[in-house]
Amino acid sequence: MARIPAQPAVQLDVVLRLVDQRIRAGSCGERFLECFEAFLGGIGYSPESTAESDAQRYVEAEARCCRPFFERHPHVLENYLLNYVYRTLFPFGREASAHHTPQSVFGEYLLMVMQFVLINGLLIGMAGRYREEFGEAHVVKLVQSFSKAVEHNPSYLKEINKFIEDRKLGTLEGLVILLKL
To answer: Is 2 domain-assigned?
Structure first.
């Protein structure tokens, strides 16, 4: 893993494309849209900005605003992942659930990682927007609205799987690229 360089531009592109795809599908909820707008503001995204400048601001927001928060509160994302494991009966899925997408154990892992990548990426931008004011209330707002917009939408979860497959990110190297900053 150490030999694979961080590729924040790829990570940011994945977050932007997948969230945009979900928003265009409609019925995301106002709170999720507010979180996405804060994310965009935090990375300085605009129609005139470049991918490189957005990625640079993304990395800066992570280092200056997001990482310090999670160093003080490491349990927050850990709790999200634990809740995910219990709620979905990871890695086997909950067959009777509307949220179940039959797939391999590695496929279940990829889906969990991708949802984590989206949440973490959105939180980085939100932290960049709110800076010193960024706190647990922002995390709760995002996770709750994300859950409603993404986790409760089986067709979108299938779109995430297709996105991973189309971009050849469903490998250990691809996951490192998406997780490493």
So the answer is: no
Mean pLDDT (the chain, rounded):
90
Burial class of residue 58 (count of CB atoms within 10 Å of its CB; 0-12, 13-18, 19+): buried
User: Residue 68's domain spans which residues?
Assistant: 8-179
* Cα–Cα distance measured from residue 30 to residue 152, given in angstroms and rounded to the nearest whole number: 16
Residue 3 lies in a domain: no
CA atoms within 13 A on the CB side of 10: 16
In a domain, 132, yes or no: yes
Amino acid identity for residue 62 in this structure: E
Q: Which residue, among 102, 96, 100, 139, has the nearest Cα to 119 in the 3D structure?
A: 139
Query: pLDDT, tens digit, for every residue of 138-167?
Result: 999 999 999 999 888 878 888 998 999 999
Q: What's this model's pTM, rounded to 2 decimal places?
A: 0.91
